[in-house]
Amino acid sequence: MKRQYLIDMRAQRNESQQDVADGIGVSRQYYSLIEDGSRQKRMDISLAAMLAAHFKSPIASIVQREQEWNAAASLEGG
């Protein structure tokens, strides 16, 4: 299940996956897998902090959205 909240945040800033990946210090391929939900199924706090800084969003917002994503993914069996 895709992390639509990350896709939406990226779209609001008119950024590519490469832009976000460069901003948080990972490869574009790895960031793509994070958005896709294939990696970081339980996102660690350091990644959440990097995303919050990149998107200029409170870390609490990222954590809340991640909790909602995890709950929805659990319901889907993912």
Description:
By secondary structure, the protein is mainly alpha-helical. It has one domain (about 5-75): 434 Repressor (Amino-terminal Domain) (Orthogonal Bundle). About 70% of the residues lie in helices and about 0% in strands. It has five helices and no strands. The chain has helices at about 5-10, 15-25, 30-35, 45-55, 60-75. Helix 4 (about 45-55) packs across helix 5. The chain is globular. The N and C termini lie close together (about 5 Å).
Helix content: over 70%
Number of strands: 0
Question: What gyration radius follows from the Cα positions, in whole Å?
Answer: 12 Å
Please identify the oligomeric state. single chain
Shape: globular
Q: N-to-C terminal Cα separation, in Å?
A: 7 Å
Residue fraction in strands: under 5%
Task: State the low-pLDDT regions, or none.
Answer: none
**CATH class type:** Mainly Alpha
Query: Order of helices and strands, N to C?
Result: HHHHH
Q: Please tell me the CATH architecture by its name.
A: Orthogonal Bundle
What does the average pLDDT come to?
Answer: 96
Helix vs. strand class: mainly alpha
CATH superfamily label: lambda repressor-like DNA-binding domains
User: Looking at CATH, which topology would you report?
Assistant: 434 Repressor (Amino-terminal Domain)
Biggest β-sheet description: none
Number of helices: 5
State the domain count.
1
